[in-house]
Amino acid sequence: MAITWQDEYYRYRRYFFNIRQFYKGKKARVYTEIVLYFLTTAFFLFFAIRPTVLTISELIKKIKDQRLIAQKLEEKINALNLAQQELRAIQDNLYLVDQALPKDSQISILIKQIEFLGIRNNVVIEGVQYSSLPLKDKIQEGKKEEVKFKTGVSGNYQDLKNFLFSLFNLRRIIIIDEFGFKVNKEGNLVLNIGAKAFFLEGER
Fold first, then answer.
1. Which distant-in-sequence residues (6+ apart) come within 8 Å of 122 by Cβ?
2. pTM
3. Which sequence spans correspond to the domains of the chain?
4. Which residues share a beta bridge with 145?
5. Tens-digit pLDDT profile for residues 103-130
6. Domain 98-200's class?
């Protein structure tokens, strides 16, 4: 049997009527209002409160980042303060750096130091020879340079040994490349030394 549109109309009309009748009941109204309340709350949570929560989260992250930056800056400040204290503690001894590595060859001062060591250790300086110095226009500022020198000293063995150690322990940086003993024509013991002294050219 075919269903006509009139039958369909009456059937759906009956469904809608039943829904209206159901909503008129007390329990139905309560349940419906509860559902609508939760739907409304969920709507505002998603569209209104969610952006606020995201903004708060971003602010909290920025605060944490700023605290981390502040901590790093404080650590750097403490390190700089410590470095300043250490610099003040050694400032009176900075002249030792210039003596160890002078800003030019200072060959004349080096020869005088060798002569003084000879007198102090009771040996005779036979002579001092040094290599040619690099030209000023060929020297790069801040580059380590060296001047080679040779010296011969005569005396007894212990005094010559003391002289050698004194030369090695000079404040100026000196590397002894070679040394040897021999007896000269007069029968004196002679210590021959080949060494080099360093300097750092340029302003400091």
1. 155, 159
2. 0.52
3. 1-93, 98-200
4. 199
5. 877 888 888 999 999 999 999 998 888 8
6. alpha beta
